[in-house]
Predict the structure.
Amino acid sequence: MTVRPGDFPTDGHGWAELLPERRASRSLSGSHRVDWTVIGAGVTGLASAHRLAELHPDKSILLLDARQVGQGASGRNSGFAVAVSHFGGGFKPDQANTYRRVNRINQAGLDQLRKRVSASAIDCQWQEDGFYHTAAGQQAIREYGNFRTYLEAMEIEHTPLDASGLRERLGTDLYQTGVHVRKGALLQPAALVRGLADSLPPNAKLHETSPVLRVDRGTPLVLGLETGEVRTDKLIVATNYEAPKLGYLRRRVIGSTLSGSFTRALSDDELESLGSARAWGVLSLHGGGATVRLTEDRRLCLRNAAEYHGGALLSDNRLALRQSIHRAGFEKRFPNLAHVPFEYAWSGVEGISRNDTNFFGQQRENIYLAGGYNGSGVSRGTAFGMALAEYASGGQSSLIDDCLASAPGAWIPPRPFLDIGAFFTVRSRFRGVGLDR
């Protein structure tokens, strides 16, 4: 497979556009010799680079990203750092240990992010007060019962809420039932990864807009870039759904493209109409339901579209068309705010596996990889990145054991069967979504 610099496009539709301008680090050129290289400056790669720098203060660590920081998947999600995963369907007692293992990984990532955000005073609208899991239609209401059974069986702290309780907190009449899970954090994703990148230790150097086009095995490994070459002893690949571009996880992971819209900042009166909570996040109990945020800077953000688009961001025209779906979902929830315009739209890509597993471990000699988070990458990707740095350094821990216990990834057929299957797999998420979209 030949990778070209143009295989890593970006656009002006993301959370980064809500932030002040930032000067990106320069692209890498020339020949370089380093001890460690990390490819991908999302949450996984940044967690790996931070941890490697701590473990090896006398070693050189190079962090490369094909785009500017904040323009990849880690800066284009809805900003939920999950501690408690939602496993759809009825509670399965024989899977309790798996549920605990996944939630331990989530919690480890959340703890690490909290530590980094606090230590470096990262201004990313961090709010650690959990999320609302809600239901409006019949299928989601049935799933509410499954979710409550799971939370109670696993002794996870939560508060059940009826329609009036949700209305009082969120200011919408749409939801009929739900639950507030108290663990988890909301954040501005692009601000988070920018802050993590800007607080790297001195022995970790970041170069943006520096796509790695090939990896040649040997001792040392040789990475080919458009205008340079890197020789490195060890390599960590943290490119999630784009790992197949470098020859890893082929037929194991694909990209699903999500899209949503932001309103302008709400006025005082508009904000008052939204109930008692001043910043909150809603996750639908239907797998295809809308994700909704009221951000700390007074914007409502709604994401209710997902599609298979070859792992690419949406074009301006396609994103404009999707805004009609966003608008319908918004006005269904907040008819009293129908006059409030959308100010931005965004799209982003999540890495998903056929059997909802994650990927962690050694790929080849001196090459390590993590990815495929199925929509929970902020916390889980952070934990995987930290654990991968320790594992590649010869470490042992319960977190490493938890990450290594991920089930093998199911095989995905080649194109054109891949395109057909992926299209219908993503589309099936919306079956029975109804009012929850």
User: Anything to note?
Assistant: The chain has ten helices and 18 strands. The first strand starts at residue 30 and ends at 39.
